[in-house]
Amino acid sequence: xxxxxxxxxxxxxxxxxxxxxxxGQCEDVExxxxxxxxxxxxxxxxxxxxxxxxxDIEMPKLDGFDVVEALSRMDWPAPATPPLIVFVTxxxxxxxxxxxxxxLDFISKPVRLSRLEQALARARQAAAQREAxxxxxxxxxxxxxxxxxxxxxxxxxxxxxxxxxxxxRLDVGQVDRVEAEGEYVRIHAGADSYLERGSLTETATLLExxxxxxVHRSAVVNPTRVVSVERKRWGDLxxxxxxxxxxxxxxxxxEAARRLTAGGLSLG
Length: 268
What we know:
Elements: E1 4-9, H1 13-23, E2 29-35, H2 38-48, E3 52-55, H3 64-73, E4 84-89, H4 95-100, E5 105-108, H5 113-150, E6 158-163, E7 166-171, E8 177-181, E9 184-189, E10 192-197, H6 200-207, E11 213-216, E12 219-221, E13 226-231, E14 237-241, E15 246-249, H7 254-257
Parallel strand pairs: 1-2, 1-3, 3-4, 4-5
Antiparallel strand pairs: 6-7, 8-9, 8-12, 9-10, 11-12, 13-14, 14-15
Helix pairs in contact: 2-3
C-alpha cells in the first residue's frame, strides 16, 4: 500500500508536535511537512504535493477557510489534484461550515488516535477513488488512441468494431453506409451492423480518404454501393444502395453528393 502523504498546518507548535506524534503511530503514513501559517502551507502544497492536509481553522491572517478557498483557485495541471482536507480544530461549532467548504472530515481537539486513524482511513479511500478515476480516464484515452491507430497506419483499410464480447476487424470496403444514432454511429456492412460510440463527423473524417461521402448530417455512404439517385416530388434526393437501403441527401450536402454520380451529373 502506498503511504498517504500528509501535510499539517497549525499556528501552535505544541499542537503540531502532538499531531506529528500521533501520525507516527499510524501505519502507511508519510509526514510530508508542516506549516504554521496559511501562506506557508500554500507554498508547501505546490512543492510537496501531499495527498492530505490536516488543517487548523483558527489561524492569523489566512485562516483554514481562506486556505481552502485559495487552494480551489489554484491551477492543477493533470495529473495533479488538490489535496484532501481534514480540519483539526478546538472549535466544534465550526463543523457545519467545515463540511460546507468541502472538507473530507472534521476532528476536534484534543485529537484522539482512534479518531485520527478513522479520518486517515477515509482519506485513503477517497484518494484511491481519485486514483481509480484518473487511471480510468487515462485508459479511456489510451484505448481511443489504440483504436485510431488500429484503423490507420499499416492496417488503415480496416475498422475495429465490437459484436458482443468480440472485437472484429472489418475491411473498409465492406462498409455500405454509416448512420448517426445519438452519441453512437451504426456501421452497416451487408446484412450486419455494428454500433460504436463516436460522432458521425469523426467517422466521416476517418473514411473520407477511402472515398466515402457525407450526404446528410446523419449519414455517410460508400459511393461504390450507390446504384441510383431518385429525385422526389419536392426536389429532395434519395440515394438507393445495392443493399436496398434508401439514404436521403441533405440540402446542404447536394454538392458533395454530386461526386456519387458518373460524369458529375447535375443534382439540381
